[in-house]
Amino acid sequence: MSSTTSIHGMWSSRLAFILAATGSAVGLGNIWRFPYTAGEYGGGAFVLVYLLCVAAIGVPIMMAEIMLGRRGRQSPINSMRALAREEGASPFWQLLGWVGILSGFLILSFYSVIAGWTLAYVFRAAGGLFSGVDAAGSEAMFNALVADPERLLAWHTVFMVMTALIVARGVSSGLEQAVRWLMPALFVLLVVMVLYAAQAGEFRAGLAYLFYPDFAKLGARFGEAVLSAMGQAFFSLSLGMGAIMIYGSYLNSRASIGQNVGIIAGMDTLVALLAGMAIFPIVFANGLEPGSGPGLIFQTLPIAFGQMPGGSLFGALFFVLLVFAAWTSAISLLEPMVAWLVENRGLSRPRAAALAAAAVWLLGIACLLSLNLWSDITILGRGFLVLFNDLTANVLLPLGGVAIAIFAGWIMRRASSADELGLAGDGLWYLVWLVLVQFVAPACVVLVFLNAIGLF
Ligand code: PFF
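# 4-fluoro-L-phenylalanine complex -> structure
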């Protein structure tokens, strides 16, 4: 087992790692992206494929990604270079780290814009703007926000500065405390929202929509739906770009990777399902459209907050906690670039964080303008925000994930991987993991790709 430590600092305990990795995984992906994507593909069938992808592809790849990070102990680019050397493989493998940096860059540029919507909604809730609002009013409120580039820019800027500040201080010190208290608080609030939806919404219809797998609904969009479900699993679990790898590099050598991954993936999935259970009953009770796209939670939740007693306070609290969840994810998106700048360009951490965040901020402007002034500029039929969202989740992250699986399963010696995972090389768990990363995960991703482009 590797016994070195990272120059960027180490987690103070196993719990700190679990909290940070869960902080990375749980974010807008669960509460904003999962419900609207499930809604775009008709609910249950999408959700079932999503859960299968988490179990068969996400969990083994997350174990592989943490393992590579912990053995490499550097930024993903340098870890992959060092591991390839150690295993006598081509230095070409460091490309994995570069693609990861590109993915992180693209994701954070739009993620910060959406986090900006969330910040704006804290103030709308607190200001009592939700009280008594109906479906049309809530839709109009959302449309007014996305049509206003200056407002979007202001909130996007606030969020990028918040993110850069924490990364500048070093994630191992800043992150632990925040996640320890705020994640459980968000969880409790989500449960309260589900209870509210159970009592005030069309709960049965919402649950049936989310959990009854009706594949007939997918029809001609089957390939696209399966690709999106898989992409959602990668996005939600923060896989395939080095975020979880770099968090693994700050993990001490004794912790059991398999157990940690079970907890992280389990919590991430639970939060996504709770979000769905809170939102769809309200969607159906108010005659909203489940497939209305990225605005879904911003159009739905205000109606619920507007009707419940104490809704202004409760709504503000909910969006504050969602901002925190987004923040702890954004930090993990920025960290791989910053660690690389520190290692290879000799920058101080604050300088590296400022530089990386400024570059992401600039690209984020293209994303927010694509919602209004630049709405007629499209590539592959999509504006920048939607393009980056689809391209990263559905293409770049799965590609990165397969490369991780192949390296861990085929390139790394079994003695190294069994040792690093803390499993007996001839034990059942190790063999299950090995079959999943060697065959199942790569084959599934390739088949889903081929199916989506109509070749299979
Ligand atoms: N997992 C985060 C979420 O669900 O909001 C988003 C994310 C973070 C994606 C880090 C990818 C990543 F590397």
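# post-check
The mean pLDDT is 94.
Residues 24-25, 27-30, 107, 235-236, 238, 241, 243, 329, 332-333 surround 4-fluoro-L-phenylalanine (CB under 6 Å).
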